[in-house]
Structure formats: C-alpha cells, structure tokens
Write a structure and sequence with these properties.
about 300 residues; alpha/beta; six-stranded parallel beta sheet; four-stranded parallel beta sheet; 13 helices; about 15% strand
C-alpha cells in the first residue's frame, strides 16, 4: 500500500534491498503505472550473502528475484564484482550501472588534523567499525588479533558497532577463551563524534568482511587518513597500493595487520594522502550524485 501511494507522486521506483517481498510490490506497481524500476544490489548478490540461508534464497531467487532483476529498468551495482554477479543472473549488461558509495571528505578534516598531531606518539589501538555480524568478520579479526598479541602484547583492539543476534556476547566469550579479554574493548554503537574520536586515535582500521559490496567503513577510513587493512572481498576500486589486503582468514589477516603496524611513518603518510585524493575524486558525493542523475535521466528517457 505504501509503494502504491508513493507511486502517485513519483517518477521512478528505486528499491534498495533484496531478498524480501518489497520487490514484488515494486514490480506490480511498475506494471500498473508503467513506471521505471531501479534496483540497488548493495552487496546482496555477493557469494557469502547468497549462501547465507541459501536454501530459501535459492528458491526465492529462481522464482521471484532473478526475473525481477532481469526486467528492471536498471540495476545499480556498487562495484565491478557486483556487475559480474548481476550478469550471472541474466541481467543484460546494458541495464547495469556501477556507481559507488560516496563519502564527504570534509566531514573528516578535524580527524585528519588530530591524526597529524598524534603521528609521532605511542601506538594506538587496532579499530574495527561495523556491525557485529558474521558477514562483517569480527570473529576473524579476533583470532587474528590473538596472533598479533604474541609479538605486540601491549596492543589493544576496539570493536565498535551495533550487536546483531547476540554476536557481541559470543565474541566476548571467545576473547576470554583465547586469553585476550583484557586487550579487547567492546564499545557498542557509536555516533558521529564518537566515531571521529576512535578514528583519530586508531593506529589502523581493519575491515575483515567475508562479503562486501563497497565498504563505507573503508571509505570513511580513507577520508580520515587512517591506515587500512581489508580482506579481499572488501577491496575498493582504485585503492591498490593504498590498502593492505589479505584473504578473510585469521593468519593471513594477522600478517597483513603486522605489516601495516610496522610500516614507516612516511610510507603510511604517503598512502594516506593517496587515499584522500581517491575519495575526493572518485567517491565524492558530487561524483556519485552526478552518476545517479545520469542513471535516472536514462531510465526516464527510455520510458
């Protein structure tokens, strides 16, 4: 009903979540009113996301979701990997548009100034920012951190973000079982000011995702000039040589973390400058908005 009411005053339907019946309502509304339909993937066709609760998703995808994707006016992908996954489900290449997430680098100016002031001070904590959910990989990071502590016993890990499904309690129990509970701090959900403080104080930011469309945490880390370690599913286009990359496995991730922590200050600063340049040019709100405007103009002209 809400989709139906909204359609009376809108020109385009844009759906931003897969694996639910909102698509059905959107598709029916599109047919009824002959409206363009744009579908954003947001990482939900990545292999881990599809395999999670795979039996139900397999049936729903075959019967409902894949046909809807194939008949959408346009499918919005965040990355080249998402483009490939959409093509594998039969979406014509001509209807797929790769448009990344955007980040406002000016919102992190104060964080960058504080980091410059702290650059020669003692070692800061390793920071995780994100949901406490298996897809984001905080459990992988926890096991990696236990390995890092054998050579860097004074280091601290901060896990910041909302709990989902009780995973924070599981992680806390795992940290205790690993004997590292006193070196791991859970801070829960954070607001913008708290996030800024954590980014200013962190030695590195780690994004250990098992599956990712395009990580906002990584883009914010680049905008804040924080050294970043990310797992391969979380890679950001254009960030080769800027982000330290490892597979989503505990030991290789620990090695990548240690490489980043040992990197000379001048090298880290150079990477930070390149990361900031990247978000200013490729991931700015203006750049992203311009691409969306072209997408919307295109589907309206084909109406």
């Amino acid at each position: 009903m809400e989709v139906e009411r909204a359609s009376r005053t809108t020109d385009i339907l844009h759906v931003s979540e897969l694996w639910n019946f909102g698509h059905v309502a959107a598709a029916l509304t599109r047919l009824r009113h002959r409206m363009p339909l744009v579908v954003s993937l947001h990482g939900q066709l990545m292999p881990w996301a599809v395999q999670h609760r795979g039996a139900r998703k397999g049936a729903y995808g075959w019967a409902i979701q894949n046909p809807l994707l194939r008949h959408a006016s346009a499918v919005h992908a965040l990355s080249k990997a998402e483009v490939s996954h959409a093509r594998a489900r039969g979406v014509p290449a001509s209807r797929i548009r790769a448009i990344p997430n955007g980040v406002d680098h000016t919102a992190f100016e104060q964080v960058r100034r504080e980091r410059e002031a702290r650059a020669t001070l003692g070692a800061g904590p390793i920071l995780y920012l994100g949901r406490m959910h298996p897809v984001k990989g905080p459990d992988i990071l926890l096991r990696s951190f236990a390995n890092v502590l054998t050579r860097d016993p004074e280091r601290q890990l901060i896990l910041a973000g909302p709990d989902e499904g009780g995973m924070s309690a599981v992680l806390a129990a795992d940290a205790s079982a690993l004997g590292i509970g006193d070196r791991v701090k859970f801070v829960g959900p954070v607001d913008d000011s708290q996030r800024a403080l954590l980014l200013a104080e962190a030695s590195i930011l780690v994004a250990p995702s098992r599956s990712e469309g395009l990580s906002m945490t990584i883009l914010e880390g680049l905008a804040a000039a924080v050294p970043i370690v990310a797992t391969s599913p979380a890679q950001v286009s254009g960030a080769v040589g800027i982000i330290e990359v490892a597979p989503p496995e505990a030991y290789p991730l620990a090695q990548a973390i240690e490489r980043s922590l040992r990197r000379p200050i001048n090298d880290s600063a150079a990477r930070a400058r390149e990361g900031l340049r990247l978000v200013k040019t490729r991931y700015s709100p203006l750049a992203v908005a311009t691409q969306f405007r072209k997408l919307y103009e295109g589907v309206l002209s084909d109406r």
